[in-house]
Amino acid sequence: MNPRWVIVLCNILDGHDAGLYDANFLKQAIEWWRDEFLWRKSAYPTETEDDHLAVTLDTLLVPDALSKFKPGRPKPDFQLKCRTRNGVENYAHSMSAESFLTWVLHDVDRRTLASDGLLSLGTPRFVDQDDYPVVRIGDGKNVGQTGKVAFLALFSAIEPLLTASTKANDVRDGLGLVHWKKYGEYVLLEIEASDLEKLCLGRPTFVDAGSHRRFKATANDPANQVKSDWGFTLNLNDFTQTGKPIDGMAERVCEQIKQSDVSSLKLYPLGQITAEDRGATPSDDDEKYSNCLRGIRSVVDIVTRIKGFV
Amino acid sequence: MSHQEQNQVQVNDAKLGNGIIHRLDKHGFEDWLRCGLEKFVLQGVGPESFPGATADLARFVYPAEGLEATYHRLTPEGQKDFRLAVANLISSWEVTEENVVLLEHLLHLAALLPVKEVLRGLPSWLKAGHLQRIPQAQADALFEKVFLAATRLAAPTQESADSIRELIALPQFRPEWAGMALEALWSCDAQNILKHLQRLRPYLSKLMFNAPNRPRIWAKRLLDAVHLYRIAQTLPQLKYFNPRSKNADLDTWLLEGLLGGDRPLVQCWINDESQLHFCLTGQFATSECLQIEGWSDLYEFLRCNNLLIDEPLEPVAATPDFEDFKNKIGWRSFCKFLGSSEAQCQPA
């Protein structure tokens, strides 16, 4: 079995065993995923099976996605299953600098940044300086994709990393963002906790994470395991060095954040990733991570357990 | 999707086959991108809008991010064809109210990859008046995305300079963009820094008005873009006073930015022979000497605004070595720049 699916199946089981959701939810989610996968295989025969599995898993949480798939049958709500209460500490959300500039940032604030010399020619796009600008989400714009969730970390956990010249690399590793590639440029947005009072937040499940290759449903450190309101990322650097799924940072997921939800954001340019890509070597690739999550369980054991739910 | 639509999808995709993205050439990528964006963005079809890249599109928030992931899976030749396809699409795009959002996604993609090839066709596209064919709000939004893409891709090339010039000429250009535009033009076309400054003068005046921090910020960026000697040579030709109008657009911000403040970027003094010297603060050994007639306005401005220093804050280590200076700046180019023969340019 492709190790990336072993990773997903391990997270499905670990989430259930940690009490994030019950057997009924698991059954519904897997059945829907399976049925849509089979439909897509038939509808789009030229795509690979792996691609069909990824697409159907990544869209599992989207409400009413592909209503053509089961016309007339309402899709269960798989998103944000493990709801949590909002806290008081500010959150951090990270995203591509260019995407933020193009699709999220308020037009007036964009022009102000340009006027004040905070946008540069070429890369990195955002000029880094000590005085971080406060900006707004643009009219009709959002943080996060429609129908999907936005991942959040605690700003206080990331703040110590922001003084280093390697902050893009460090944030990538701390948040387990294996898809952040070398030379990509990113920004961090600080969001006040009070701005998210009316939104649904949750501890991430395998549905919220989709096909994310370094998702970890449960914490490994006992001190973190008791923090049941939070998921924990995989620290990519520690994993590469030790081969162990050492916890990174606490994380949550949130429904899409609209302009009307947030009065302002503080913008922290992270700069470009300068280190080599993660997840690309034998010491940290999908196989290594899947073996790490699997532990003493065999792939057969895992598949058998999954089948038992369906 | 109806049964009929489903069958049509199968027929279309069957022609493409598995691994489609590795079999597309430049024209194939153009069709693939155009049709894909129409389906994905306008029709809400979903990731299958891009056969062969469905998983990439499903994983990321914005289509350009997914397409970037697809791009990185291509061979170097495939990547080249992909970039050319993006560039061709942008430079041939007939903008309408309905499809302008697709162009914005293409510009996002061009900035992400990056696709410097866009600059080749951009000047002609801008001249063709596409932004005038859509409502103002859409034109303003599109302009900013084009400007940001052009400056992101800016290289010291003629095409880059032409693109920025065309953008400045459009009614959507605003003072907020003047600093970046000037910096881009100076980087691309350092031979004509005066002309660029003159073109942007009214916008720069507005940009710097009532913004005491901005002159220094932009003076620093311009110093990074162009050697001090070029700036120094241009200074006598700038506008410092206009007795006819109090509200005239002036270039005083540049001198204030370069020479003003407690820790100026540049220092300026007059020597015993009535020559103006400029140097980057702390780099006296490489001071630039201005020995040009007709700098009385410049001198007057410097004097009235206390921008001259009496003498260097640090002792000059040695008389600047003229031979070193010649070798450093490209002597023949320098003489050509002054319009003088080599003999005429020798120091007294």
3D architecture notes:
The complex is a heterodimer of chains A (310) and B (348). Chain A has 310 residues and is of the alpha+beta class. Helices cover 36% and strands 17% of the residues of chain A. Chain A is built from twelve helices and eleven strands. In chain A, the strands form two sheets. In chain A, strands 1, 2, 3, 5, 6, 7, 8, 9 and 11 form a nine-stranded antiparallel beta sheet that branches. A two-stranded antiparallel ribbon of chain A has the order 4-10. In chain A, helix 1 runs parallel beside helix 11 and helix 2 crosses helix 3. The radius of gyration of chain A is 20 Å and the shape is globular. The two termini of chain A are 19 Å apart. Chain B has 348 residues and is mainly α. In chain B, 56% of the residues lie in helices and 4% in strands. Chain B has 17 helices and three strands. In chain B, strands 1-2-3 form a three-stranded antiparallel beta sheet, with helices on one face. In chain B, helix 7 packs parallel to helix 9 and helix 8 runs antiparallel to helix 9. Chain B starts with a helix and ends in a 10-residue tail after the last helix. At the A-B interface, helix 3, helix 4 and helix 5 of A face helix 1, helix 3, helix 4, helix 6 and helix 8 of B.
